[in-house]
Amino acid sequence: MAETIAARICRVLTGEIIDGRLPPGQKLEEVVLAERFKASRTPIREALRELNARGLIELTPHKGGVVASISIDDLSDMLEAMCELDALCCRLSAQRMSAMQKKQLEMIHVQSKQCMDAGDEAGYLALNREFHQLLSAGTQNKTLMALIDSHRERLAPFRAAQSDVEERFTVSFDEHDRVVEAVLAADAEAAYNAMRSHTARLSIHVLERLQHSRKDD
């Protein structure tokens, strides 16, 4: 699926906020952004609403937004919680996933390998989302699913900050491989540890990138 104009604008602005090129307090005015991106006000407003929903800006209707202050300590807390939630999902999924869900997990993992080998970044990322959503669904716990989905959406722009890590997909796939192996074997503790290690690595890259951008200010 092609990226929408609003999604592209949101992606660009997200990167600039996380990198510190758009510092806390910076105004994001609709008319200025429309001129910059050569776009109508509609996709600009959609992008700003998404940034607001993710806590990256504070939005004023019909005017624009102001870049929010991102506390490294608060982000660290959220990432730590995400590590435990992701790992807990894997532990429960290893115990509760249906045979059909396990087969789906295998298929997604195989397709991810194909995307990685073909250099299909968009395809890999889409399958990565399916991979984690399926592991959440495998818990058979609606409360936990809602909690982790909300938390993952909140952290999505920050976790995407590790996109410039060398051999990103190779490392990610190898870590997913260990998760899949443990879940299919119904080894709850191995699944927990494999996912916790995977999420912790991503979290470290996110914090390092944000800390680096702060030093450059």
TrEMBL record:
Keywords for this protein: DNA-binding, Transcription, Transcription regulation
Pfam families named among the record's database cross-references: FCD, GntR
Gene Ontology MF annotations: DNA binding; DNA-binding transcription factor activity
InterPro entries cross-referenced by the UniProt entry: GntR_C (IPR011711), TF_FadR/GntR_C (IPR008920), Tscrpt_reg_HTH_GntR (IPR000524), WH-like_DNA-bd_sf (IPR036388), WH_DNA-bd_sf (IPR036390)
Keyword rRNA-binding carried by entry: no
Protein name in the entry: Carbon starvation induced regulator
Organism per entry: Pandoraea sputorum
